[in-house]
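Checked the freezer inventory, then went back to the computational side. Two predictions to log before the end of the day. The first one is the construct we discussed on Monday; recording sequence and tokens without edits.
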Amino acid sequence: MGEVVYLNGRIVPKDQALVSIDDRGFMYGDGVFETLRTYQKVPFRLGAHLNRLLDSLKALDIELSLTPQEIQKAVLETLRANDFDEAVIKITVTRGNSSKRGLFESGIKSNVIITASQLEPYSTDFYSRGVKVITVEDQRGGICNHKSLNYLPNVLARRSAEESQAFEAVMVTRRGFVTEGSVSNVFAVLDDIIMTPPADKKVLAGTTRQVVLELAKGLGFRLEEDALIKQDLFAASEVFLTNSLMEIMPVSQVDDSSIGDGRPGRLTSSLLENYRRFVDSWLDKVLTKS
């Protein structure tokens, strides 16, 4: 049968999953999305992702056509129907199909699409050696705390990274403040203090970011959610990135400058080890209950 997707209440073959050309996500980027992964076929922190999705829908005044429980059920149905070893799950909600071509419309039924694809793990060399990132100008607007479908600045940042043969692009405002990567949150270690920009309208409150904050506090590491400037990245003894798929990714080079001794640092390595222990512990509890 091949890959299947969830589309507005039905599981259908991927090549038959069609949305209208009047869909406002297609026409205006009028929608939001969440991306998460599985461990042993179990979605990790699905509740946290759904909470953030609901917060974004409320903030953008998009009426959801399903309950949170129905979305959770649909995610699990999509996973079972595809049966990947490990999967990347994407939940997309658009405002719906335009009925009058107005720039803003309300009272229309949202479109909900859930896809699953085979998870392709990052190379173990990335974690043992660290990765190169570049800095680019942050050209986004002021609602970056929501994962809207208006992702063109992130796409262009990612293109710049690929053109520079870098793993990721870290966005910096015109005033020199670090915000986040094109698909990741950014952390830097300065004077043994783990620092990350506060989650605000320019920084997404990443679910993995939140786990890292909790782990760092639990391990007794010094931690600050405070502004970072571009020069802080070059002065840092360690830099790392986080998101659901990469977990915690060590950075060994920013632009043309090596970070620390050019290898993953002590705090980064400790957090990655404890993050994976956290996942294993969570998974043991989930599988025991089932």
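The second is the one RB wanted added to the comparison set:
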Amino acid sequence: MGFAELVEAQGGDAVALLKSAGFTEKVLSYPDKLLPWRDVCYLMELSAERLNRPSFGLEWALSIPDHFPNVGPTVLMAQFVGDFRAWIESSIRYWRCHTNAFTLHFFDDGESDLAMFRYEIDSGALPSRQQVEYAFGNNVRMARVVLAAPDENPALVRFQHSRPSDTSLHDMIFRCPVEFDAAHNEFLFERRLLGYRTNGGLQNFKWLLDRYIRSRIRGMPIYDQTMTTMVASAIRSMLGAGLCSSEFVANSLGMSHKKMQRLLSREETTFSQILDDIRRETAIEMLLESDAPISRIAGLLDYSSIAPFTGAFKRWTGNSPRAFRDHARRTTHQ
């Protein structure tokens, strides 16, 4: 369940809440859009207050379906790493490209029985109980899906904010001791879980990917059912996770690489052309509508560094990403 569905189910007006937080209704149709952290936190706190739902963040975390369309391809990456440790590390790398409002830390001393995952809000970012609880509820649920272990629980959860009057949802989601007024937002879990295998469960993976892609298609204003649109949806689902090869996309769509190439050829396009078009459109949108650093945009588009991204962008527009953004801003303020 997305934000709008959850708010409506609780008798609220999602569009009115979005506008009060400085967003337009359009953000509901663009899952890849980068949103200002402070505005997102304000939206969640405002929703909790106006809906009289003190645990709105946890309620939202509980409502997310098991393919987790709210976190990009994070869950899907479990298919391509060896174990739970590698999944945690690859997820941290992925989110490093997606936000500079918080930093994820993973601690394992190699000796104790417990490992730790810490969620550190960067200085200057707005602290938000709702956002932190949403993230932790989401992460714990994802871990259970990735591990295929619904009965596994953290050993301890710690929050920096004060204890709320009702912690029943905390007990339901985390199923472990929860501390408040802590020095850090973090949770500890048994170190033995780090060695659990996560890759190779192809049948479950295909189900997750199918659900994920279909959820994105449902959000499209027009879906023309062409192979081009299917491949584009798959690419957008995985971009930024290092998974966007033509072989992988074909396999994820349940066909051979050659068959996908043949079907795309009938529509007078190729996988490389679709990927290039998506990268160009996304890069231009991010440069015009966000303050994301150039290096972060390059990572989001699966470029290994700024240099190949800059080369591609010059091919698309004749300008470097920085020059393009600077020119657009000067033009806007004239």
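For RB: The chain has a mean pLDDT of 85. The domain at 3-195 is CATH 3.90.1520 (H-NOX domain). Let me know if you want it refolded.
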